[in-house]
Amino acid sequence: MTGLALDETHAASLASWVESANDPATDFPIQNLPFGRFRTAADEPWRIGVAIGDQVLDLESVGLIDSQDMNRLMAAGAASRRALRLALSRGLRRGSEAHSPFAAGLRAQSDIEMGLPCRIGDYTDFYTGIHHATTVGKLFRPDNPLMPNYKWVPIGYHGRASSVGVSGHSFHRPLGQTKHADEAAPALGACRRLDYELELGAFVAVPNALGEAVSIGDAEEHLFGLALFNDWSARDIQAWEYQPLGPFLSKNFASTLSPWIVTLEALQPFRAAFTRPEGDPQPLPYLDSPANRAHGAFDIELEVWLQTPAMRAAGNSGVRLSRSNFRDAYWTLAQLVAHHTVNGCNLQSGDLFGSGTLSGPLADQGGSLLELSQGGKRPLQLSNGEVRSFLEDGDRVILRGHCERPGFRRIGFGECAGTVLPAPRGD
Ligand code: CA
User: Fold this and answer.
1) Which residues pair with 200 in a beta bridge?
2) Which terminus of the chain faces fewer neighbouring Cβ atoms within 10 Å, N or C?
3) 125: CA distance to ligand 1 center in Å?
4) What value does the CA radius of gyration of the chain take, rounded to a whole number of Å?
5) Is residue 393 part of a domain?
6) Residues 132 and 39 reside in one and the same domain
7) Ligand 1 centre from 66 Cα, in Å?
8) Which residues are catalytic?
9) How far away, in angstroms, is 17 Cα from ligand 1 center?
């Protein structure tokens, strides 16, 4: 594990000649430098760029990469990523001699289209939000909310990569098989309990060979960075299908990623200690290390916003439904990599891990409507007078995230937005 590796790129005093990057409110100051893929026209190939203020820097145009293959850049590993970050920081900071070529490689973010950041070969969704697991478990099993394995095994399931979309997209309310307790037989119909899940997505950088486990000490070298991730969930379909093998069609109709990957380097100042509540079991040795305990967690503030069609019509940008923090996750990123590979499973560059729903410890910090409305029993009163138990057609859910710490520049993740369209048959 790399530890608290701070260098000149993290200095809070750094400013950029891209003036919008010096706005205290921007998510993309020169200390962030997240990676994404963009194009300027629909018939053009995707290009790798780095966000700086309200601009994106085309990396190939300034000679910093020789390929537009993000998965290849990910596979190159942490040392070359750190060198690239240093070159970007030096070229974009005030007084840089590279000002002119870099300025020629800038595009306004308002003029480009963002795509998925890479080819996602496989997607695994974990379940590290213990407050989510406990609250949801209580709804189904009041006496036994957490399964006995939860505090020993980083629980996860294999999701579907083909339906992961990028922020700004919309998708149809899914059809599926549901069965209500008072009905004799299930029926096919439109989901009536559509929900979001507030998650972070982690991207695999360096692959590991089939049969070769990654130790917890090496685990973070196999990760690239984090983005916001919404794991849309059809709760009524899920309730009927999830036993005994877990979620299937209730999850794989759509997921949304934010377009910018904030690298582990940018997140260094915002590391936090990994601790376990008193009385909880300590991790097994393959999931434990002094470095993981000292700074294996990350302090990332997360928010969920909802914009209903009525709000949109009124020019209202939405209301915040909840806040939480990645620090409260039960497992660290390094533990997820070590666990995923302990059986020899091979991870590939660009693979995506979902963190699981990141809820806070308090009732109003739920990372899903299932929690906030207590399974639909207590509808949320929105500030404009509307009410929601679950999502309605036209609703737009927006995830946001940022890191803040005294002595360092605030960095953010941008937005992860998706909009619900009516079910294909309108029923
Ligand atoms: Ca999930």
Assistant:
1) 228
2) C
3) 6
4) 21
5) yes
6) no
7) 36
8) 132
9) 40
